[in-house]
Amino acid sequence: MSGIVGYIGKRKAKPILLDCLERLDYRGYDSAGLAISDLKQIEIRKTEGRIKDLRDLLLVEPMESGVLGIGHTRWATHGNPSSVNAHPLGGCTNQFVVAHNGIIENYPRLKQELVKKGHTFTTDTDTEVIPHLLEENDTGDFEETVCKVLPLLKGSYALAIMSASHPNQIIAVSQDNPFVIGFGKEETFLTSDIPALLSYTREFYPIKNGEIALLTPDKVTIKTCCGEILSPNHITAAYNPQDMMLQDYDHFMLKEIFEQPKAVEETLKDRLDADGVRLPELEDVLTDERLQNVRKIHIVASGTSYHSGMIGKKVMDHLLEIPVSVSYSSDFHDEHPTLSESNLVIFLSQSGETADTLSALREAKRHGCTVIAVTNTAGSTITRKADCTILTKAGPEMAVASTKSYTAQITLLMVLTIWLADKTGGAGEKDVSDLLRSLARLKQDVESTLIMTKDAIDQFAQVTYDQDHLFLIGRGFDHVLALEGALKLQEVAYIHADAYAAGEMKHGTMALITPGVPVIALATQPHVLDKTISNIKEVKAREAFVVGITTVDDELVESVVDEVMYIPSTHPFLMPILAAIPLQLLAYYSGTVRGHDVDRPRNLAKSLTVE
Ligand code: F6R
Question: What is the mean pLDDT of the chain?
């Protein structure tokens, strides 16, 4: 959510910053800007819109070439998307220029005080207090001035700061907001997300709370705010830059939907065999003794990751004898006042940077809970805060809508559940061996589902392109699937899609069913199939147009729906992976047929680093 990049070295900064911003624009894409220093003065250019709009502006208002600079692509939180509110922002004199991710929570009070002291504000942003505060506290020493101002700020931030009096320096700081230094040959980079820099370097250092990074053309110095110089350990990014290219696809979303067989294969690699599962990442922390004391498991996540968590809870309810709850990250504080050392909390986050999830994690740690992170992003903040991390191996997810990370999360939650069942007892041997067998052929089942549904879903999206409302219904696992399908259709196709527990329709929602309204009925769970069929008949009786999604071995659904779509049959716990695929494809094709930018849906961004 908003992206910052920085460059300092011997090459021209502008093309590098623009290139990196383009790779980072999934974090926000409503306005963008650059500040570049030619070692004498700083120039700023900003515009509403995306990086291509910034490029267009630079054709009309070129910038002198400089070898250091910062850039920003914004997801508006305070103040509408506009060139005025775009970053980098200066104060009264542009003595200090700032690009910021995060939120300064105490900005109204700071602004009031600064206005009293004669500062004139020109934007509606929370960020603008920072350059004014730097001006107000300027001692002439750039580093000292920044260190004076930081304690005045409450909230979360990644900040890249330039100073007109020190045009050969950039200062970078971070507080609960990801900000990473990239080390090149005789050049240094800054980024809020590692993938933006992978064409330039694989060596990184994530700046930690309380640290200050001083970048000059010759060196990088990382200090604590008390002035102690640190010798940071670099991390090496494992991603391949090719993974971040579109290759032969029109959109990242479609590419990532089709990468799901690989996401499953990689996530299961070295973790699964005929006898059981291996998760060595957990063994140091989740010792037998500690597991004996676990009285409750909480799963916590946001958005699509929350839906994976709902599936995880249902599977754990079947296979473990420990009570399991699932919460939205943003509600976790309210829902669990009685957290304790006997609680195991599993946080799911594709990005590993979602502010709501990190805030819930801090709460769990404060109460002494044992914390496991399940994330797709090695080196992300969540991996540094959790007691232990298990990585989904879906590869970088560039489209804003999560697809392959959902599949990888559920796959990994199955492995984790089997691992916990093995350690804590409870699950029947047959339950586990059936699931293990199905996991072993999951990759092939995902492949078959893609082949079986792609064209039919494309056609369905073309004929329903004028529908603005759609219902998805299902029972149990299928209800969670309906929630995930609805979320995808809302975010990518802007369709008012609603998900309901099929058995609950008659308790109120049935009033919304009118002749011709499209209903997608999910019927993948054999043990509730008869009841689901009754619920389908209820909506059919109100003349809804029903598309059923069911398994190849079912013979009943076809006769009660208008259209049927078949997917392979696997273990019921894994059906939420297979049946999500036609729903992801439906969102994709419905979005593209309506002319939407499916990779960058309106008002959204990937990595939500504000609460
Ligand atoms: C939906 C989507 C979001 C994310 C949510 C959590 O397609 O992508 O709902 O799932 O913002 O993000 P992570 O998993 O990165 O914490």
Answer: 94
